Amino acid sequence: MTATPSDPFMQPALKAGDKLGYFEVQAPLESGGTSLVWKGYDSLLARHVAIKQLAAGNDIDEAFRERFNQEAELHKKLGASHHNLVDVIDYIDDTRGLFIVMEYVDGQSLDHMLHKLQSPVDTKQAVALLHQAATGLQAIHAAGVVHRDIKPANILLPREGGVKICDFGQAALMDQQDAMSAGTTRYMAPELFGETPASPSSDIYSLGMIAYEMLVGRAEFDKAFRTVLRDQRNQALRWMKWHTNHRLAPPHLATVNSAVPAPLIALVERMMAKDPSQRIASADQLIEVIQRVFQEEPAAAAPAAAAAATPPVPGVHHQAPTAPLPKKSKLPLILSINAGVMLFIVIGLLFWVLGAQPGDDIEAKRQQFKRAYESAKEMEAEADFASAAIVFKQ
Questions:
Q1: Active-site residue 149, yes or no?
Q2: From CA 166, how far away is CA 103, in angstroms rounded?
Q3: Are 84 and 165 spatial neighbours (Cβ–Cβ below 8 Å)?
Q4: How many angstroms separate the CA atoms of 200 and 205, rounded?
Q5: Is the pTM of this model over 0.85?
Q6: For the residues 174-203, what does the mean pLDDT come to?
Q7: What is the CA radius of gyration of the chain?
């Protein structure tokens, strides 16, 4: 049997204690279907790594092997180019199979978090996660690559914070694509099931599906798609039919989670548009919308009560709310009034002195005026209003 990444039950090609180049296999991290990952150790650089098996054995489809080797260097450079992408350390073509050696991320995947949480993710947390995932996709697309397998299992949440996108096994150069041979149909864009080439908006669709799942929770997501999920044997086919049928849509977000604000609902709907021409076209556009709508208007992200009731998403750092614009100060008006009052007092005193009668004590009045004038000057200096200074100099 020819081994390809679409084998439904790939057999593990490694075990604890094995050597794979400079890397020592230590323990399994994930096992099942096409997701076989081990924790390893890099003896040269004294660091832990993650080793993912893409295919097993010598009998590997040669077209896939060729593509694997062609993309190896690209992905190594791509992974090291951005803090929201997992660093791809090496691609190994071995007699036991094809393997990717990646940065080891101490944390959990979004898939594990959704499985444990079950309930909806706090709205602000979800927006923060979307923003960081979109930033990672922006770097991937800028390199001329479409990921094509964006799913919660490929979004990692490091313990120290942040978001990292991993697994470029399904990625392909935008201008060198072949038919889709694998991927997770649960989140796959409709065009990937046909002959239309994948584009950056294909990854946006997948991220939109993930956003919907975060905002309704894993339990409600599975309930919404129960007609697809009930048939385990033909689930991939059922997902394909759901994604490609433009008449089908999930329950409206507002009916499932009333805490989700209207602008976020509209954004997710645009991300999930089955017609690519109606969809947000790129990570650049998605980031621009998030920054303009949600970071400038933090109050719209979620009611305070809902935010307090839901625990924060592990591993996600959040954008601090933008400070509100300062209210227009009333100080200039107050100072202007004070200046007018001072001017009135000074002029009154001046007329009082000039209007004195011959029998009056002119010198006493002059000294009294001088004291008032000096007092007014002190008040003017403290208030610092230029108009009063101009009057006093005349």
A1: yes
A2: 9
A3: yes
A4: 9
A5: no
A6: 77
A7: 33
pLDDT at 327 over 50: no
Q: Are strands 107-109 and 88-94 parallel, antiparallel or unpaired?
A: unpaired
Task: Name the least confident of 226-240, 295-309, 361-375.
Answer: 295-309
Closest alpha carbon to 49 in 39, 59, 57, 37: 39
How crowded is residue 231: how many other Cβ atoms within 10 Å of its Cβ? 10
> What torsion do the CA atoms of 11, 17, 18, 21 make, to the nearest 10 degrees?
130
Of 149, 203, 222, 275, the active-site residue reads 149
**Complete DSSP assignment for 163-196:** -EE---TT-EETTS--------GGG--GGGGSSS
Burial grade of 3 (CB within 10 A; 0-12, 13-18, 19 or more): buried
Quickly tell me which residue has 């108009």 as its tokens.
Answer: 387
What's the rounded Cα separation, in Å, for the pair 205 and 146? 12
**Bridge-partner residues for 108, per DSSP?**
157
- Separation CA 196–CA 189 (nearest Å): 11
Highest mean pLDDT among 58-72, 85-99, 297-311: 85-99
Q: How far apart are CA 5 and CA 38, in angstroms?
A: 17
What average pLDDT does the segment 268-278 reach? Answer: 96
| d(C-alpha 372, C-alpha 393), whole Å | 15
Sequence letter at residue 378: E
